[in-house]
Design brief:
The structure is a single chain. With about 280 residues, this protein is mostly helical. Helices cover about 65% and strands about 0% of the residues. It has one domain (about 5-280): Orthogonal Bundle (Hypothetical protein af1432). It is built from 15 helices and no strands. The longest helix has 21 residues, at about 260-280. The N and C termini lie far apart (about 40 Å). The mean pLDDT is about 90.
């Protein structure tokens, strides 16, 4: 008998709840007026998180003219909400770095896919909305869009039935649904709700393959979908097979992205991802 998503979450002890620091950051994600003292209270009690936050802040993604050496300095130079988003990204790293055998993903492969999607989504959202807030929200949406695969990995392995080896998006999701009764987008949205993610973020997770259905943040869902498509084309596939040029541009057109908009991202995204990973002491 197939379990419901609620039952799966309850039965998956390592995903039942986020680490306490990440949970506290989640509560600050959607607070545009968050106070610096509240941010410091959460971050500074976690030395490892503080170190990873500063590494991310000093990456080329933020284009700072000088290195930041403390959380307080980062708050001054980047703003409270940006630091919350950075800290959230840093705290999610360990959660996303493990291997997922059901999806044939080795350690760090989902993390690279997620980080690349976040970077790409931040780039694409700026084509329509150049605000810092939009960029940060898109980065976060890209980072967590595939968390449903964390939840489905174990039950898929228990079924002892292989997902298609070189599947496209639709084939992968159809196989998930056939085996378990739901796909990773549905599972990710349910998991995000259980972790008290902001409603717009849950919406993006749910519709990152069908952004036209997103009600709260259709622009961000479209940016995440375009970035997800781009990182898959570049080989950071997150569990799907290789993609031909024809398939890529057909899918890009369905998302209303032009060659002029996506070619620069195709050219720069691998380098941007390498740069950010190098800053946090990792590599592709």
């Amino acid at each position: 008998m197939q379990k419901s998503l609620h039952e799966l979450i309850a039965a998956t002890s390592e995903l039942r709840s986020l680490p306490s620091t990440t949970m506290q950051l989640t509560s600050l994600l959607d607070d545009a007026t968050v106070d610096a003292s509240a941010v410091l209270e959460v971050i500074e009690k976690d030395p490892s998180l503080t170190a990873n936050l500063l590494k991310l802040a000093n990456s080329a993604f933020y284009g700072l003219r000088r290195q930041v050496g403390s959380t307080r300095e980062a708050l001054v130079m980047l703003g409270n909400q940006t630091v919350v988003n950075l800290a959230f990204a840093a705290s999610m790293g360990d959660i996303l770095r493990g291997p997922l055998a059901a999806y044939r993903l080795n350690r760090n492969e989902l993390w690279h896919h997620a980080l690349g999607t976040g970077l790409g989504a931040a780039y694409l959202i700026a084509l329509d909305d150049r605000s810092v807030t939009a960029r940060e929200r898109a980065f976060t949406g890209g980072l967590v869009h595939d968390i449903g695969k964390l939840l489905l990995n174990q039950p898929l392995k228990k079924e002892l039935e292989q997902l298609p080896v070189e599947s496209n998006f639709e084939e992968l999701m159809a196989a998930e649904k056939r085996i378990l009764g739901f796909d990773h987008a549905e599972a990710g949205a349910q998991l995000g709700e259980s972790w008290n993610f902001p409603a717009p973020l849950v919406d993006v997770i749910r519709w990152h393959h069908q952004p036209e259905n997103a009600e709260r943040e259709p622009g961000m869902a479209r940016a995440v979908a375009g970035a997800n498509l781009t990182v898959c084309k570049l080989g950071f596939a997150g569990g799907t097979g290789p993609m031909s040029d024809e398939e890529f541009w057909t899918r890009a057109e369905s998302l209303r992205y032009t060659e002029e908009e996506l070619e620069p991202l195709l050219t720069r995204l691998t380098g941007d991802l390498e740069n950010m990973l190098n800053r946090i002491g990792q590599s592709l």
